[in-house]
Design brief:
Helices cover 39% and strands 25% of the residues. With 278 residues, it is of the alpha/beta class. The strands form 2 sheets. Strands 6-7-8-3-9-10 form a 6-stranded mixed β-sheet, with helices on both faces. Helix 4 packs parallel to helix 7. The structure holds adenosine-5'-triphosphate. The site of adenosine-5'-triphosphate (ATP) has 16 residues, from strand 2 and helix 2.
């Protein structure tokens, strides 16, 4: 594992978030998640991996109770945080419990300045001095944002907008951050920078992360543990290092295949068929 806390240490920590066998249906008919289970230990970086449409965003939205706006609902299974069922809470109550989601696509208030955007993240809090201190903390992790604090967010770059989105989440003093596709649309160097900051926040501030990512390569270098989703099911999970070394993951998710990427599940059933025929 790349310089992160030893897995054994992270895995033995208290589980904060537990998703148990959930099913999600959109518009009463479209079954998207078909029994997804995962657990997120305190102080860990857990990656939720998979290609386009695998169900990563849906899983994060199910956790933060954002499905209703999309006509989606959790129809089976349970979601708990610190042992307490949270799937009936509204998103704001979940934020008060310490769980916040950074949505895919780096949503910013384009007409507000960078600093005003960050301050919107502190809306659940009172203590002005503490909020000021946290703003400084955010600027320490994202010095670029300090330089651009007075700029209108709409005129900042994609990387800066991703930083604003994460910084705004930090302003709510979260214990757990659900981060959706932080690498999306960013140049490789910026992706490394963002993941490096996530790692520092994890190690120095003790922030727990569940991050959804299509970029398996980078996610498995920074995460402690990973779950691979395909067509709404977890097809594999394990320590990040073990997944990185797994031949199937290497072949189908880390771009080390000559044939291009196939479905992981297709390959597994193909192998099963081959065994059966031989
Ligand atoms: P991406 O990286 O492309 O966002 P993802 O793994 O996050 O992929 P989801 O966005 O969770 O995948 O989508 C999973 C499946 O659910 C897809 O087939 C998608 O078309 C479907 N889906 C997502 N949102 C809705 C919706 N509001 N109504 C109906 N189907 C939806």
């Amino acid at each position: 594992m790349l310089d992160s806390a030893p897995l054994t240490e992270v895995a033995s920590r208290e589980v904060l978030l537990e998703v148990n066998n959930i099913e999600v249906i959109y518009n009463h008919v479209i079954l998207v998640l078909k029994g997804v289970s995962l657990s997120v230990p305190k102080g860990g970086i857990t990656a939720l991996l998979g290609g386009n449409g695998a169900g990563k965003t849906t899983t994060l939205k199910a956790i933060s109770n954002l499905l209703q706006a999309e006509r989606g609902e959790v129809t089976k299974g349970t979601i708990s945080y610190r042992g307490e069922r949270v799937q009936d809470l509204d998103p704001a109550s979940l934020v008060k419990k310490g769980v916040i989601q950074v949505m895919e696509g780096r949503h910013c208030f384009e007409h507000l300045t960078v600093e005003e955007n960050l301050m919107t993240g502190a809306y659940t809090r009172s203590g002005r001095a503490e909020v000021e201190a946290d703003l400084e903390m955010v600027y320490q992790y994202f010095p670029r944002l300090k330089l651009r604090r007075k700029s209108q967010a709409g005129y900042t770059s994609g990387g800066e907008q991703q930083m604003i989105a994460i910084g705004r989440a930090l302003m709510s003093r979260p214990e757990t951050i659900l981060l959706d596709e932080p690498s999306m649309g960013l140049a490789p160097q910026l992706v490394e920078e963002i993941f490096g900051i996530v790692k520092s926040l994890n190690e120095e501030q003790g922030a727990t992360f569940l991050l959804a990512e299509q970029n398996t390569n980078v996610a498995l270098r920074f995460a402690h543990y990973g779950y691979i989703l395909e067509s709404g099911r977890v097809v594999m999970d394990g320590a990040a290092q073990a997944l990185r070394e797994n031949p199937d993951v290497k072949e189908f998710y880390l771009g080390m295949s000559d044939e291009g990427r196939k479905s992981f599940r297709d390959v597994r059933s193909y192998r099963r068929r081959k065994r059966w025929l031989s």
